Amino acid sequence: MDSDNDWTAILSDHPIFTLPKAFSGPVSKPESFLELSSNNLPNFTLPNEDSLAPSGRRQVMLLKGADLILAAGKDIRMASLGDARLNQNSKKTYKTLHTPNIQFDIHQMVLNPSGKLLAVAGAFQVAVVVLPRSTFTRLVPDTIDCKSVQLGQYYHASHASAPITKIEWHPWGEAGSTLLVMTIDGKLREYDISTDTEEPQQVLSFMPEKKSKSFQAEDPSEREVVSFALGKGTADWGPLTAYALTRSGDIYAICPYMPRNASIPSSYVHSLECFISAKREFLAQDTSSSRNLSMLYDYQHKYVSALIKQLPPGTTFPALSRSVLMHPPSIVRSSPARQGPFLLQPSPCILEGSDGGDATDIVYLTFGLDHDDPDYEGGETAHLGAVVIAFQDGRIDVCLDVEKVEARWDGKQLASQGLPMLAVYENIDLGLVSLLKQSYGDDTTSVELLQGNHVVFSQDPIHDDIIYVYHAFGVHSLHLGPVLSHLASALRIEGDDSEGNLDKALQELICTSVQPILSTYSVERRCSNPVTAIAVPNDVYLTYTIFILTSAMRILSFPLSLQDDDARHRQEHVPSEEINQDPEVSFFVPLEGPAEYISLLGDEPYKPPDIFARPTGLPSNPRLVLPPSASNEMKLTPDTLRYLGTTVANLTSQIHEIQLAFQSTEARVVLQQQELQRQVEKCREMNLKVRRLRGETLIQVEQRMDTIQERQKMLLGRLDRTLQALMEKACPELSEHEMKWFEELKRMKEDISGSGRYDEGSLAARTKQLEKDFGRIMPNLKALAEKEKRHKERMVENTRTLGVSQAFELGERSNHERARINEIEKELVRLADKLSLNLERPPGT
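The chain above was modelled as a monomer; its predicted structure follows.
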């Protein structure tokens, strides 16, 4: 391995991984306090224990780009991994963030989407820290003052309040300032850091309040919420759904839920509107639908319409999507209803040797949402979701979200007819029970350490089908890619028997690839250093690696392999009917009948043995990171010998599998060499045939083609003569209609061409005469038009010489003269009447 990329060697002596101050000094605690053993088991079983013992959910390390952030007790430390790699020989340093408001041991850390705010939580308290800029390493002092503020001190400040189980930033919070805090009593509180840090904006209650005068015979674990998750999706209610997991394993959901100040993509709102419209249209066609269901969809339509009204003008679909500030609609007065508990069908299996264990974490996974192919149309696989649940005993339930959760509100008329359902696809065993039984034998107390185990999920930031599971005994990797490809190929098969193909695919179970990465359990001492955090960088300046931190502040790293997501889509099976329909490919489809050449390799592509397949790049056997022993001598006990025997047996089995795989691979190589020789011989034969065709055979073919063409001409001539003879024989004289038609054609020819050469009445002669007249008259017309144009221009110029005032005076003068003329006319008429004279009418009347 390249030393520059071996992060374990680079960070092994980094001072940032020193233990907190509580483990140094005269009254310090022993390091065994951080170990999970039968002596320290009570410190790991109490979620409300605010101590350094890693009880409950722990996430004390994360990456912000190339910067490492670590929580050690009450301190928050930061260091640059880039500087640590470049300056390996120099002294390594780190910075401590000075946050006086944080006076509690940090159990969880979460970075907001913008990377500027860090949320930290202890057993009861939660705070937000404003992180320094990326140039913090250039500062001289070892301590950096940072602004920090505690959230909801009325709800999370005292030991009497409900313990905090999980914190998470909402991905759609405006400016990345919406923090969700879940407490063990089932209250999910939403805090907007930019608005109010004391009072939550919204509170979702997954557990109803107990009635003081009532008695309920229920297990207390059914009312303790241990984790929550946010749904996902593209055109359904998934992103507006919150899931909660109780300690007993029950799952509840609340939908719709969105932050008080949310930044939602406009494309999602339009897609949700289309989804609701399609539901209502389908319901209108179904005459057997109930009135409650119709009212429910009406409420959903009102809710989505209120979201549509908040979009800015001009936001149309399918235009380019953009994030829009929105607020939860208040058009539905009822509060969102709690849905659940979910029915798990079929019922999950309990691991052998375990009593079931408590549930610890839940995660919602989606596949195919970020496909970059512009021609990809999504389909059902784009909405394929999975709910993964973890338990203390190492059981992982993979459930398919086949019945999507929809928005519901409280009310008798909107009450659900049944419980929601999740399809249990697979039960995964991490092997923790068998690991403990190896050291304890048949002792009934062998699984007691599982009570202090808390299994936590961590999603890979690059591949959405890989999740990491860390717990008190190590780390495992779950690769759901094979399951995804199998289900996707079944869902994409169209036809009348699509449901049958899906059932057949579900019967052919493809399991999740489980890879153990790290083991921290010591068989000799029967104790373990729990894993408190894992981090996978998503930065171009850091290699694709997984960093693992144990409770003893020991850091380990494993390089990972990037996977080609497009290759998975290319490898999916394409039906042969679609291949034959493609005109570009149909040319290469072999003809019907026996094949001319049969390959020794067969039709199926070669698949390397599974023992050689390492898609993630992780080692085949987990690395052992054991707690430090008090003595350097190793004691051989029956448990140690039993563990060594089991390990040797596993290694021997792997060696045997590798040998068999090598033999099969070697046989495949020999077969490919033989096939290569056969293909070379076949190519030589084809070359000889081509040369023969290009030589004498080509000349013979050309001569034969010339002969065929001449023969074709002769046949065409004979065909014409034969056809003419048949026509003359069938009708030797012209019919009456044919004679009339020919006479009409003759008359039309005379009208056009004329009866003679000098016929001036023909259309051709008249057309020529018109052309001559047109050529003679056209110059005079052009000259006249030009003269008229000049005359108009002169008239316009003359009118332009008279000003407005002059025209006004001229008009007044003209009116005055007209009035005098009228008076004179009247006077002349009066005088003529007196003299009895007849006058002619004046001009202009």
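The chain is about 35% helix and 20% strand.
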